[in-house]
What does this fold into?
Amino acid sequence: MDYVTYGKTGLKVSVAGLGCGGNSRLGQGQGKSEAHSIDIVRKSIDLGVNLIDTASAYGTEAIVGKALKGVPRDKMVVATKATIRSGSELSSAKEVIASLDKSLKLLQTDYIDVFQLHAVPPGRYDRVMKELVPPLLREKEKGKFRHLGLTETSPNDHNHETMQRVAKDPVWESVMLGFNMMHQNARQLVFPDTIANGTGTLMMFVVRNIFSQPDYLRNTVKELVAEGKLPAEMAKADNPLGFLIHEGGAASLTDAAYRFVRHEPGVHVVLFGTGNPAHVETNIASILKPPLPKADGDKLTALFGHLVGVGLDLPDNSPQRKK
Ligand SMILES: NC(=O)c1ccc[n+]([C@@H]2O[C@H](COP(=O)([O-])OP(=O)(O)OC[C@H]3O[C@@H](n4cnc5c(N)ncnc54)[C@H](OP(=O)(O)O)[C@@H]3O)[C@@H](O)[C@H]2O)c1
It folds into this structure.
């Protein structure tokens, strides 16, 4: 495993982070047993992963808590989240703190390393800053969590409007945002500020549906060609990103997707979500490989650098999964 300093938090984190949400939710999304999901966490730790990202909304905090039994707490970086939604209203500080307390209980720990507000839309940011952040900082002082973070709602915020504000505000020590081969605008919109301010960055939507389901990619490319956003010949290809897979290049589309993101300047941790033990191994191996050949990386930027919002589905929002 490779480890990096997580911005101004000073934490040493693995470049591959285990995501416990998304479609897989450690296999819970596919009806796997708790023991199966615990094994996914343990296997990741055995392979050197020390950053685990979960959330009150995922239903996987208790699994993570059980999986971490016997693992020295100071070797792990545990990140979780609280929702900011209470029906159609903004959650109160009391509700968010109750969520924090419940997370501590389910995770069976005295402190959370990175406590994040989950999926904050741009229109809620001012109220989050005014109503939620000050009381949360008092909880931080009590030692319930070490670093404050925020995640964007990528499917609803393609231009990182929330992140553009968060990345400039020193109160946030950690951010989570969407970045992938066909949604690269964080390079201009977010990373310059996170780098300047030493904000830790967690990447999501790196593979999701688009780079794990060939039909989904083909259909998306056809739509983008029809909208005039991609060259016409790409609509005819069986694998429109097949040019990435060759001797000395990527081994698969997921391999290309994880490597593309890992080596982007400004990226600290690439989150991978899976319920499949074999994918734990292949994904970590991909994240640890060198960058894609320069010509392939340049081609991805030339072809897709102008695209915005591609591959950012809400959980279970892919055509294949809906069948
Ligand atoms: N707003 C937010 O706060 C927010 C939103 C989204 C995500 N997240 C966080 O980011 C994490 C990562 O996002 P994600 O879950 O979408 O992860 P991802 O790594 O981008 O994509 C995971 C998807 O790809 C599949 N997959 C993974 N490895 C594969 C492989 N080697 N070959 C083929 N298919 C593969 C998985 O299915 P299998 O189970 O079959 O492997 C799953 O459907 C989440 O778990 C969560 O922690 C946060």
Notes: The first strand starts at residue 3 and ends at 5. The CA atoms of residues 55 and 80 lie 5 Å apart.
